[in-house]
Amino acid sequence: MNGFPVCRATAYDRGGQPLFDQDVPIGLIGGEPSGPQVARGHNIHLTWYFDPRSRDRSYVQHTRWTPSQITRYAVSCHGRPESQVPI
Fold first, then answer.
1. Rg over CA atoms, the chain
2. What pTM value is reported for the model?
């Protein structure tokens, strides 16, 4: 089974340059702390807000930015085998 995804978002500016990366808190929806089990080939939809970057150790800044510079986000996810699920 390839499920319990781990996801990371990258914010980009108009020129396609990455501004920052931050983990998506997918563990908040079902099955904390590992998140929902998602079967290969299925999708989930999540609307969330990032934690303040000062409180999120996953935040990585690539350049100085302001919210008005963000034009899009890209999210990549990968599954984990059950042996790596922390519950």
1. 14
2. 0.77
